[in-house]
Design a protein that fits this description.
Elements (H helix, E strand, L loop, with lengths): L9 E4 L1 H15 L2 H19 L5 E6 L3 H15 L3 E6 L7 H12 L3 E4 L10 E5 L11 H15 L3 E5 L20 E5 L2 E2 L5 H6 L2 E5 L4 H4 L9 E4 L23 E5 L6 H14 L3 E6 L1 H10 L4 E4 L5 H5 L5 E4 L7 H11 L5 E3 L1 H8 L11 E2 L3 H8 L3 H6 L1 H12 L2 E4 L4 E4 L5 E4 L11 H15 L3 H23 L15
Parallel strand pairs: 1-8, 2-3, 2-5, 3-4, 5-6, 6-7, 7-9, 10-19, 11-12, 11-14, 12-13, 14-15, 15-16, 16-17
Antiparallel strand pairs: 1-10, 17-18, 18-19
Helix pairs in contact: 1-2, 2-3, 3-4, 8-16, 12-13, 13-15, 16-17
The structure holds ligand NPW, adenosine-5'-diphosphate and potassium ion.
């Protein structure tokens, strides 16, 4: 049983914490306008680096400080001899730094016009400085028109840059109904949840964070609330999911027993067992319906396949110190329910997935064995919590934390960005959008991979982070080589070596 070793993450914050950091930064600098000027310089640098040939810029500026950043950027672009037009979207009067920025733009003779939906845009780069972390959602109707206009100009060929985060995204959750679809987002100060999760993560496009000097004050800050981390999945790819070592034998890598595959759902259990094996488990057993045994032996002779209803199966397929993967194709009939009860009674570390989670939701008494992981998607999380799916979508971190505490386990809340959360309240966000994974069976493969890493690593959280990272990374590789349509959930497993 091993540890992953050192790995780094980037801290992520909610709006309340960002406000605290901003406040400390402003007092450290002695002046908030200096920070806004620095924000504009950072925007200028990143934009001209990415689009060195662009000559013509349009900046949409709201009434708050997000618009202030945009107005000071306009001054810098104008001073660099580039063509810039500010479209003013403010419906309330400006004050503070935003007003100072507006006055600076006037002094620099930046061309400012009131935004109109009829405006024809021929700019190479459109900058969204409408709303940042001060946004209240849903958007007012006039701002919905602005968002629509920005997205239309993008479809006509302009590149779109979002200041801090795309307008329309909730900075605390990543939730959005209608939002700007950026090519590049330049986050200010520190990363926010909305830069990474849900629609926010997709709408950001390429994401850059510029700390604006806040790095130096972070160490001295004591922020309320648990730690949120962004994990770049590529850093785990430097090592294999379950690295092999010279002085080893099959017992060194653990035994995984996959339990599932009722009538009609054999594929789920087969994929999970194949995944456990290809991820590096020493030995794998599959406990399934007798009708799937031959199919498994033909496809994966390395997997020991048993009829789950045979008396002696427990002694053959399940060993001391083994890990269970319970749920792929388990079904909601009596067969699945009996297996669920039988397996839970063994108190072995378990990856509980799919219909295993259904049975969990039906039994309020059940306690999960120590060292277990549950892997719900939004719908399964909603069922476990008694929430609507939309509620989980709007508050995924809260949902995952509640589940981790209630079941005293690690929770893998699956989505475009997946959350990995433990009982202590550590929250990791990992993965980027890989639409090739949006196919039935991807979750079964992940649960098998998790079985192998759970058998290998000492720490359940590390096991979950490793499997989630490799699943997402390998999917990206598979999409490149096989295509997003042809690539199948189990093909991910060909990219683990
Ligand atoms: N030195 C500095 O200050 C620095 C600032 N920084 C930058 O500041 C940003 C935060 O600025 P912020 O706090 O002013 O909030 P912001 O996102 O501009 O929104 C507030 C405005 O939007 C309006 N509004 C809100 N919701 C609305 C809706 N639904 N529909 C319509 N209107 C709505 C709201 O209107 P009101 O409340 O008056 O009705 C108000 O006018 C941050 O994201 C970063 O970019 C950093 O670069 C660091 C340096
Ligand atoms: N667009 C996407 N980007 C990244 N990951 C995705 C995407 N669509 C699906 N996934 C991943 O694929 C898996 C799907 O799991 P699940 O919904 O349980 O599938 P199934 O039950 O069919 O096996 C999860 O790990 C999820 O994070
Ligand atoms: K913005």
């Amino acid at each position: 049983m091993r540890h992953i070793g050192a790995f780094s993450t980037q801290p992520v914050f909610n709006v309340a914490s960002i406000r605290q950091i901003e406040k400390a930064l402003f007092s450290f600098e002695g002046n908030s306008f200096t920070v806004m000027e620095r924000a504009a310089q950072a925007l200028f640098k990143h934009i001209v680096t990415k689009w060195p040939d662009a000559q013509h810029f349009v900046i949409l500026a709201g009434a708050g400080n997000n618009g202030g950043d945009g107005l000071l950027l306009a001054v810098l672009l104008k001073q660099a001899g580039l063509q810039v037009l500010v479209l003013d979207c403010a419906h309330s009067p400006r004050s503070g730094d935003a007003l100072r920025a507006f006055e600076a733009a006037q002094r620099a003779k930046v061309n400012v016009e009131l935004f109109s939906i009829e405006q024809v845009c021929s700019a190479a780069v459109v900058v969204d400085g409408v709303l940042g972390i001060g946004a209240r959602l849903p958007l007012r109707e006039d701002l919905q028109c602005v968002v629509h206009w920005i997205n239309q100009t993008k479809h006509k060929g302009a590149a779109v840059v979002a200041i801090d985060l795309p307008t329309g995204v909730d900075a605390d959750t990543g939730y959005a109904q209608q939002c700007v679809e950026a090519d590049l987002t330049i986050s200010m100060v520190q990363l926010k949840i909305g830069n990474l999760l849900g629609r926010g993560g997709i709408a950001a496009g390429q994401l850059i964070n510029d700390s604006l000097g806040s790095q130096s004050i972070m160490a001295e800050m004591s922020l309320a609330g648990g730690q949120l981390h962004w994990l770049d999945v590529r850093q785990f790819v430097k090592q294999k999911p379950c690295p092999r070592y010279l002085d080893s034998h099959k017992g060194s890598y653990g035994h995984v027993a996959v339990v599932g595959g009722d009538h009609g759902y054999g594929g789920a259990a087969l994929m999970a067992s194949e995944a456990a094996s290809k991820t590096g488990a020493g030995t794998v057993a599959l406990l399934t319906r007798w009708e799937h045994v031959t199919a498994s032996l033909v496809r994966n002779p390395n997997v020991m396949a048993f009829d789950a209803q045979q008396e002696q199966v427990l002694s053959l397929g399940i060993r001391n110190h083994c890990v269970l993967v319970l749920g792929p194709g388990l079904g909601r009939a009596r067969w699945g329910q009996q297996l669920f009860t039988q397996m839970m009674a063994l108190s072995l570390p378990t990856v509980l997935d799919a219909d295993g989670l259904f049975w969990l939701s039906q039994d309020s008494e059940v306690e999960l064995p120590i060292g277990s992981v549950i892997t719900p998607h939004l719908g399964e999380a909603a069922r476990l919590l008694g929430w609507q799916i939309e509620q989980v979508n709007r508050s995924p971190i809260k949902a995952a934390l509640l589940l981790a505490r209630r079941y005293r386990c690690v929770v893998v809340l699956k989505g475009v960005t997946t959350l990995v959360v433990n009982e202590r309240g550590d929250v990791y966000m990992a993965g980027k959008s890989e639409p090739v994974l949006s196919k039935g069976g991807s979750g079964d493969v992940l649960s098998g991979m998790l079985g192998a890493t759970l058998a290998y690593y000492k720490d359940t959280l590390e096991a979950a982070l490793m499997a989630v990272s490799w699943h997402n990374y390998a999917a990206g590789e598979m999409a490149v080589h096989k295509g997003v349509h042809c690539g199948q959930p189990y093909d991910v497993l060909d990219y683990l070596d």
